[in-house]
Amino acid sequence: MLSIRHLSLRFRRYQGLLRQSQVTRLSDLSLDVAAGEVLAVAGASGAGKSLLAHAILGLLPPNAITEGAITFQGRRIDQGCPPGLRGRRIALVPQQISHLDPLARVGDQLTWALRRTKAKGAPVEILARFGLGPEVLRLYPRHLSGGMARRVLLAMVSAAAPDLLIADEPTAGLDPENRDMVLALLRGHATRGGAVLLITHDLAAALPFSDRVALLRDGELCGMEDARDFTGTGTGAALCSPFARALWRALPGNGFDANA
Ligand SMILES: Nc1ncnc2c1ncn2[C@@H]1O[C@H](COP(=O)(O)OP(=O)(O)OP(=O)(O)O)[C@@H](O)[C@H]1O
Ligand code: NI
């Protein structure tokens, strides 16, 4: 469904009036996301995960220079994501829940999201799918717990039934129960035939809900693994990349030893 080939991303930096330099944030990145699968993109803070999402959606600032190809359902989208695709066929669940309008009730925001994307369904049904009762329609974002706000965001974004859902740290700040609920909802999107790019720095939590894992470090793809290969408390011998093995051994419960 989504195919990225040799994607590089640099930012132009201006130093004074005449001097200009460039800083590379993504280098030569290639990956695919197929219909029906959850691809987790894991990496430390600053690895370039959000930039990858923004590159796919064409949301980079003007000083960004990209190279390479991004193809969605057979169409090149790296020269700008056509408006008909963004928000409808490809949707982003943003990293910040502050994307909810603080001055509008949940019900109104859902209605607007449905209208904007010409999606079908009633707000109350959509909320129910995310484990939220009808009373939530009348609430303002400040009345929502972190877990509820995440689910409302997810409900708004997935109301349009996009083919590709890009979720940027959708579980940040959630307790394990809410975290797993959000991850299961994303998994459900893939099981219904959609594709999910799940950006996370919590690999351990994402693994049970993911099919494959792309490991990003300093803007480089340094491992593409089958999620099932992260198993047991052993050495992670089934994993292909040394970085993945080191990461696996460093997870709590596996010995805490990233250097072994
Ligand atoms: N507009 C920009 N201009 C220059 N550098 C940027 C810009 N946006 C992001 N960066 C830098 O690019 C790097 C990657 O940023 P990105 O937001 O993709 O990280 P991330 O992997 O999503 O991290 P986190 O887990 O903290 O969200 C960071 O060092 C960041 O400071
Ligand atoms: Ni990020």
From TrEMBL:
Which residue numbers delimit the ABC transporter domain? 4-243
Which reaction is this enzyme known to catalyze? Ni(2+)(out) + ATP + H2O = Ni(2+)(in) + ADP + phosphate + H(+)
Specify where it is mainly localized: membrane
Q: Where in the cell is it found?
A: Cell inner membrane
* Protein name in the entry: Nickel import system ATP-binding protein NikD
Keywords assigned by UniProt?
ATP-binding, Cell membrane, Ion transport, Membrane, Nucleotide-binding, Translocase, Transport
Which species is this UniProt entry from?
A: Falsigemmobacter faecalis
The Gene Ontology terms for molecular function here are: ABC-type nickel transporter activity; ATP binding; ATP hydrolysis activity
What residue ranges carry the coiled-coil annotation?
none
The family line of this record is: Belongs to the ABC transporter superfamily.
Query: Quaternary arrangement and interactors, per the entry?
Result: The complex is composed of two ATP-binding proteins (NikD and NikE), two transmembrane proteins (NikB and NikC) and a solute-binding protein (NikA).
User: EC number(s) in its UniProt entry?
Assistant: 7.2.2.11
Q: Which GO terms describe its cellular component?
A: plasma membrane
Q: How does it sit in the membrane?
A: Peripheral membrane protein
Pfam families for the chain: ABC_tran
